[in-house]
Amino acid sequence: MVSSPPTASPAIASTAEPVHAGDQIDAIRRGAPVNQEIAAPLMARVENADIKRVRAYPMQPPTIPHSIDNYQIDKNSNRCLLCHARANADKFQAPPVSVTHYMDRNDQFLATISPRRYFCNQCHVVQTDAKPLVANNFKDIDSILSEEHDKKAN
User: Fold this and answer.
1) In a domain, 60, yes or no
2) Residue 134 sits in which domain range?
3) What's the burial of 140, exposed, middle or buried (CB within 10 Å: 0-12/13-18/19+)?
4) What is the pTM of this model?
5) Does 10 fall in a domain?
6) Domain contains 56
7) Could you tell me if residue 148 is inside a domain?
């Protein structure tokens, strides 16, 4: 015996008044009504202070503390590796690329940067003076352990 498909339940009429498009608020538009043109926010400036920032969440790729304007990163060349390759890091006083970047997807170590880790700016971004869009109270494990140690000492 073939059963019949379930029937859709009847639509329930809404008692709410329809909202006009001009009265709707889009959060991405910073509270401005959809039917009004607003000025674009200013572009954030790249910080070029060479100061490492703390990470905002676990496993966050480090941000780039300098400008990378006109850096060539394509299949033929990677300007980042001039300074950050393990062979050159000491000479340029730059942090070397993590050993994880030399591992393939099967966790086997390679002699060169893994192709899936070659394009640096797919994960790493430059530091800017942009204000955070949402609040963040992340604390790294070292901060938490330090606070607990200080509490026990008092």
Assistant:
1) no
2) 73-153
3) middle
4) 0.63
5) no
6) no
7) yes
CA–CA distance, 66 with 51 (Å, rounded to integer) = 8
- Kindly state the helix (H) or strand (E) to which residue 73 belongs, with its residue range: strand 73-74
Question: Which uninterrupted H or E stretch holds 74?
Answer: strand 73-74
Side chain identity at residue 2, one-letter code = V
Question: The tokens 């002699």 sit on which residue?
Answer: 111
- Please tell me the total count of domains within the chain: 1
Identify residue 56 by its one-letter amino acid code: A
Query: Residue 90 and residue 88: Cα distance in Å, rounded?
Result: 6
Nearest-Å Rg of the Cα atoms of the chain is 25
How many angstroms separate the CA atoms of 121 and 108, rounded? Answer: 23
113-152 pLDDT, tens per residue? 999 999 999 999 999 988 877 778 888 888 889 999 999 9
Q: pLDDT of 63-118, one tens digit each?
A: 999 999 999 999 999 999 999 999 999 999 999 999 999 999 999 999 999 999 99
Token reading at 64: 């780039």
* Residue 118, domain CATH: 1.10.1130.10
* Residue 24: per-residue pLDDT: 55
Structure-token match 């006083």, residue found:
93
Query: What totals of helices (H) and strands (E) does the chain contain, helices first?
Result: 3, 2
